[in-house]
């Protein structure tokens, strides 16, 4: 039987926000320190019909294309990942759900916090709050005042 954690895996969630870039920097450094693989994960929305459960093909192709373009732009702005095994993943779905599922195989999940709190945070929900509560591994939340 193969040990899934023989090579540590760090998952970092990115969304284009400044704190997501800071989280990526932290994740790259952690991957270097732990000699770990790095999964850079961008969760993008999908529109599903409540009646059929399907997506419109034209819409889905367009959104998937935008997600690939986003990751390509991120690769160009990312800190050096030389010496690290990195996978750049665009995954359809709710960011909280995608990252929590990705945490099943990870030794660390790194995410940025946009700092939405108070009443708006309660109404909208928070990816970082959901991940802290439901992830299957330790979570590093990068905040503005790091």
Could you walk me through the main structural features you see in this protein, from its secondary elements to its overall organization?
Helices cover 42% and strands 20% of the residues. By secondary structure, it is α/β, with parallel strands linked by helices. The chain has a single domain, classed as 3-Layer(aba) Sandwich (Rossmann fold). A five-stranded parallel sheet has the order 3-2-1-4-5, sandwiched between helices. Strand 1, helix 1 and strand 2 form a beta-alpha-beta unit. It starts with 8 loop residues before the first strand and ends with a strand. The mean pLDDT is 85.
Give a short synopsis of this structure.
The protein is an alpha/beta fold and 146 residues long. It has helices spanning 18-34, 57-77, 95-102, 118-124, 127-134, and strands at residues 9-13, 37-44, 86-92, 108-112, 139-142.
Features:
5 helices; 20% strand; alpha/beta; Rossmann fold; globular; 146 residues
Uncertain segments of ≥5 residues (pLDDT<50)?
Answer: none
Order of helices and strands: EHEHEHEHHE
Query: On the 0-100 scale, what is the average pLDDT?
Result: 85
Radius of gyration from the alpha-carbon trace, in angstroms: 16 Å
Structural class: alpha/beta
> What's the count of strands?
5
Strand percent estimate = 15-25%
Query: What's the CATH H-level homologous superfamily?
Result: HUPs
CATH fold-level topology:
Rossmann fold
Q: Give the CATH class.
A: Alpha Beta
Q: Which strand order do you get reading across the main beta sheet?
A: 3-2-1-4-5
Domain count: the total is 1
Number of helices: 5
- The amount of helix comes to 40-55%
For the sheet with most strands, the description reads: 5 strands, parallel
User: Regarding quaternary structure, how should these chains be classified?
Assistant: single chain
CATH architecture heading: 3-Layer(aba) Sandwich
The gross shape turns out to be: globular
Euclidean distance between termini CA atoms = 40 Å
